[in-house]
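Hi, can you check this record?
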Amino acid sequence: MIYLDNAATGGYKPAAVQNAVLASMKQCANPGRSGHRLSIACAERVLACRKLLSDLFGGYGFERVVFTRSCTEALNLALLGTLNKGDHVVTTCLEHNSVLRPLEHLRREGIIDYSVAPLEQGRLNPETIASLVRNNTRLCAVTTASNVTGETPDLRAIRRLLPEHVLLVADGAQGAGHIPIDMRETGIDALALAGHKGLFAIQGAGALLFSERMEPRPLLFGGTGSESLNLGMPEFYPDRLESGTLSYPAVCSLFEGALIVKAKREENADRLFRLTAAVHAALFSAAKYVPRFSPNPCGIVSFYHEEIPSEELAQILSERYDIAVRGGLHCAPLAHRALGSAPEGLVRASFSPDQSMKEADALIAALKEIATSV
């Protein structure tokens, strides 16, 4: 199968990542819970991953790197763990449901209100986002890259226009690993990561990095291996937000994946930009197809056929050509409304850095054959 669904979960796991997972299962203990040699060795590996992520993303120290099961969990920590009754949030129409649903839950509970910045000529306007800020605005939540179009909002410009008291929370699910992200230079207060996409890690590897301006409350309560006589959660991070046993294999995979990103991010981004540019050019000139993206370093290619619904076209590609793509709304309903592609959605093909024009040409050839057969 030609796997072009990397924006959902990366299909390419480098050998170093695979080997790290296998090694972690052969020598696996509970990090931070015991004093024996193996437990200490595992804890040191976990600490090394925290330090690497903080360094890679310009974070605020290893103690403010919290491991989660997913980017969704990290975003819930950042939002539900920070917002209070009476707060207001600014977000955008490009956000994933992992941002929108927590905000909508809080709104329905009467805790917060939120405003959504629209697209203007297909892009987010930092000035429009800033114009939505109110006196009680607590934070602004913006994606680093749209999972529908691959657009990368100008977070630096957004931060410059926001009042100092407004926290900037970034969803790094699609951008991390593909584009440069420096939290301190950009002014990002919280960055949520999905290790299983652009960071080459396995599923179950997520993280939240956050600044000293944020003090997220725990959403999960339990053992931490520290202050065990205290029936309340520890006050210090990361323990305050990490109840229960970490997925040690996931952390090990994330460590190796982050090392690869650190060494090859620019090279990989160039490759993905060239692949998306080639597909964009082919779709733009092909009859019956309309691209809804621009060439991007995240490898995302979204489009629709004038006569075939997106999910049906995705099924045809899978069954007839053994090409895996995703149709529908991609858990980003407001993005599709803004693009005019709701409720049918779009077909999204998403490339991995290990792929080449061979995969792009196969997709293009299949789409052209489908177009002539309808």
About this structure: The chain has two domains: 2-9+264-373, 15-261. The domain at 2-9+264-373 is CATH 3.90.1150.10 (Aspartate Aminotransferase, domain 1).
